[in-house]
Every structure is written in C-alpha cells, then in structure tokens.
Amino acid sequence: QSYCHRLQHDMYFLTSTSRLNEQVVDKIVLQLNRVYPQILTNEEAEKFRNPKASLHTRLSDLLKHLQKKGDRHCQEFYRALQINAEQLFNDLPSRKILKTPDPTEIDTDKEQNMLNDRGPVFFLACFSVAAGLALFWYCCNSETQVIGRARRILGFSPVIIGRHVRNICVLYLEDMSRN
C-alpha cells in the first residue's frame, strides 16, 4: 500500500480533535521544511504554520498538499510523525492494518514453539515410558538369562545406583556378553 493511500486512510484519524497539538504540527512542518530533499518550501511552511488559521484547517490542508505531491512526500510526513509523535504514529489505523498478520501465512516462530511448549517434564515422562516398555519387552523375552559375572560386577556398584538402574545395567552386560 502506497504512503498516499495510507495518508488518505489516516486523514480522519489525524485531523480529529485533540490528536495533534499545535507544537507537534509545527515541529512536523519545520522538519518537512528542513529535511533533504526539501518537502515543503519556506512559503508553504509559513502557510501551514500560520497561527491565524485553525489547527484542523492547517493540518487538513497539509495532508491534502502532501498527497498531491506524491508518495515520497507522504513517506517523509510519516517519518516526521514518527519522530515527533511516536505514540500517535503507532496508533494510526494504517499501522494497525499493517501489523495484522495474514491468516493464511504460517508464523514460523509460533510453529517452532508449538513443538517445545510442553517442557522437560513431558520429555522425561515420555522417555521413561519408552524405556520402561523396552525393558519390559526385553525382560519378558524367554531367552534372557542373568550371567553371574555381570551380577558380581554390579554388586560392587555404589549405593547411588538404584536397584532398577542396576537391573538395566545387568541386562545390558548380559546382552553384550552374548555378542
């Protein structure tokens, strides 16, 4: 969307009462007068800063004048508005439209977090279930026999290793000794 169309869309919002005060409008006009390339000539800047005319009229005339000049001039107005009245700039209706995401577009950050939203406890629970099923399947196998040497080696293991972990290690050593 071009800046001229955005400015036309935002015109009512900007010219409504108490949105912009005299000081902010004067700062914007001065910035447009002094920026390179010069958007407003000295005569135009004097016209739009004339305190005899109402603020609403001056602002409306300024916006119409910028729309006639083209897209570059409207873009510079938005830049001046952002510098001098950032909160108002962020509240513009055209900005809200630009911020609204396309419903058909996939948000990659959101999709990436969908896989990680359960946390480490969920991972550990799933891993424990999988390890338990593997151990159950291995223990129920009729060919499994405990070898004495493996049992003696793990018998000297520290107390920190629990009974269940010790049994898993014994089964692993038995499997390794068969191969």
Can you describe what's shown?
The chain has a domain at 3-97: Death Domain, Fas (Orthogonal Bundle), CATH 1.10.533.10. It has 179 residues and is mainly α. The protein is rod-shaped. 70% of the residues lie in helices and 0% in strands. It is found in: Endoplasmic reticulum membrane; Mitochondrion membrane. It is a single-pass membrane protein. This is Caspase recruitment domain-containing protein 19.
Q: Helices and strands in order, then pairings?
A:
Layout lengths: L2 H13 L6 H13 L7 H7 L6 H15 L1 H14 L1 H5 L2 H7 L8 H7 L4 H21 L8 H8 L7 H16 L1
Helix pairs in contact: 1-4, 2-3, 2-5, 4-5, 10-11
Task: List the main descriptive attributes of the protein structure presented here.
179 residues; mainly alpha; Death Domain, Fas; rod-shaped
Q: What's the architecture of the domain at 3-97 in CATH terms? A: Orthogonal Bundle
CATH topology of the domain at 3-97: Death Domain, Fas
Total DSSP E strands: 0
Instruction: Give the oligomer, counting copies of the same chain as homo and different chains as hetero.
Output: single chain
Order of helices and strands: HHHHHHHHHHH
Q: What is the end-to-end distance? A: 70 Å
Fraction of helical residues? over 70%
Mean pLDDT over all positions? 77
DSSP helical segment count: 11
Q: Percent of residues in beta strands?
A: under 5%
Unreliable segments (pLDDT under 50, ≥5 consecutive)? none
